[in-house]
Automatic annotation (TrEMBL):
GO function terms (MF aspect): acyltransferase activity
Regions of compositional bias (Basic and acidic residues) in chain numbering: 393-403
Pfam families associated with the record: Acyl_transf_3
Keyword Membrane among UniProt keywords: yes
Keywords, in A-Z order: Acyltransferase, Membrane, Transferase, Transmembrane, Transmembrane helix
Protein name from the UniProt record: Acyltransferase family protein
Positions of region (Disordered): 1-36, 380-438
Domain Acyltransferase, residue spans: 41-355
Regions that span the bilayer: 44-64, 84-105, 117-136, 167-187, 244-265, 277-296, 308-325, 337-357
Skewed-composition ranges (Pro residues): 12-27
Lineage: superkingdom: Bacteria
Enzyme Commission number, as recorded: 2.3.-.-
Keyword Transmembrane: yes
């Protein structure tokens, strides 16, 4: 995801009848009726997106970690390509629309919330505290205590507090998406409601841009809404098969994405010369959409090496720490090493650190948080919560009641047996969706 503090100035459903028994359908997002599998091709795309952003920050930006030297000039002519690496953020947003709808399908609001907290916060807290430590030891960065404390919430941008890292702005964009898709989760996700949601968001985002209404623009993020909507449409294609309507959503979002991407590219902080932005930006946006369409329709299924799953798990911590680790490492390695060798060494250090963060921080902390968060949400169903002793089941919660599993990754879909909502039949043209059971 990109950075440098970049901000772009981003009828209630009729109660359903008692649903018919759910028909068989691919709850794991395999193309056209495949088994329950992890989408390793999506893991690979996520990692490539993170690597593109990393290379942009190290070699393609007009800033960079190289002691006030212009990285774009230092790494010419390679920077003619890496200056577009920030578009990895747009690929992230496309993937997010796909995998968040996948992971939210069939879940309650509590389950969705728990999955987001345990996925996002452990590595994020580590990154924030790392920034504080770097500030205390080197004086570099934005790790002042008055900045760090609100940053621990991940809501600092909404509070008017500076992001501790230049890459954190994208997390606030994601938060907007989570808040909006929570509406779907609360009502019960069905095919028809997804279509209504995507159409409403797409149209209102355009109206918000047209009117210049800042509150609506803050809520609906018109510059980035097309990527999330397209990702959702591509997931529906993946799950139920293609229709003209779903490809229409994807095409509309593609056109809107190009409209917003061009002025963003030539503005601060990217500062790409207009002669370079056109036609490169439309071509790269088109390729981004095309590769996700290939993944959605199963054309990338052969990219199924198990190592891609590991790369996918490294993506988030790599993204969080690469921007702030680079300057002190660059000071340490250069001029003893030439810029290209120092870049390779910094990248290797970041990836190694990301792996350690995943193994030593993310996994243990997520495992600690999940049962406690589940217990917290269980107590919401109790009229008068009583004092609960560790190891003693609640009287309101049967001892043998199974807990719905939380997938270990966004690209690992939920267990099909754990779905709570009626499922739409699978086919190239979905029939009318079965109503939600809520």
């Amino acid at each position: 995801m990109s950075s440098q503090n970049h901000q772009h100035s981003s009828e209630p459903p009729t109660p359903a009848p008692t649903p018919a028994p759910a028909q068989p359908g691919p709850t794991s997002p395999t193309s056209h009726g495949g088994g329950h599998r992890r989408l390793r091709e999506i893991d690979l795309l996520r990692f490539l997106a993170a690597l593109a952003v990393l290379l942009y920050h190290y070699t393609g930006t007009t800033g960079g970690p190289w002691d006030d030297h212009n990285a774009r000039e230092l790494f010419a002519p390679i920077s003619l390509a890496t200056q577009f690496g920030y578009l990895g953020v747009e690929l992230f947003f496309l993937i997010s629309g796909f995998v968040i709808l996948m992971s939210a399908w069939g879940r309650t609001m509590a389950e969705f919330t728990i999955s987001r907290i345990t996925r996002l916060y452990p590595a994020y807290w580590f990154a924030v505290l790392l920034i504080a430590a770097l500030y205390l030891t080197t004086g570099q960065g934005r790790g002042r205590p008055e900045n760090i404390i609100p940053n621990l919430t991940m809501f600092q941008q909404g509070m008017g507090v500076q992001n501790a890292s230049g890459v954190f702005w994208t997390l606030w964009i994601e938060m907007h998406f989570y808040a909006l898709i929570a509406i779907l989760v609360l009502t019960g996700i069905t095919y028809r409601r997804c279509i209504t949601f995507m159409a409403t968001w797409s149209v209102l985002a355009v109206f918000a841009q047209e009117t210049g209404a800042e509150p609506l623009q803050k809520l609906l993020i018109p510059e980035y809404a097309p990527y999330f909507v397209a990702g959702m449409a591509l997931y529906l294609i993946h799950r139920f098969g293609p229709t003209l309507l779903l490809w229409g959503f994807t095409a509309f979002s593609w056109a809107a994405s190009i409209r917003y991407a061009l002025p963003i590219a030539t503005d601060t902080p990217y500062n790409i010369p207009p002669s370079n932005a056109w036609p490169a930006i439309p071509i790269l946006i088109t390729l981004t959409y095309a590769v996700m369409a290939l993944a959605a329709t199963g054309k990338l299924r052969r990219l199924n090496w198990r190592g891609f799953a590991t790369l996918g798990l490294l993506t988030y911590p790599t993204y969080l720490i690469h921007y702030e680790l680079a300057p002190p490492l660059a000071d340490l390695l250069h001029p003893a090493l030439p810029h290209w060798a120092a870049t390779l060494a910094i990248t290797a250090t970041v990836l190694t650190t990301a792996y350690l963060v995943h193994r030593l921080i993310e996994r243990p902390l997520a495992a600690w948080l999940k049962p406690r968060l589940r217990d917290s949400f269980t107590r919401l169903n109790i009229t008068e919560p009583t004092r609960h002793h560790a190891g003693t089941p609640h009287r309101d919660t049967p001892r043998d009641k199974p807990q719905d599993p939380t997938p270990t990754s966004e690209t690992q879909p939920p267990d099909p047996t754990a779905e709570h909502h009626g499922q739409e039949p699978h086919g190239s043209t979905p029939s009318a969706p079965i109503g939600s059971t809520i």
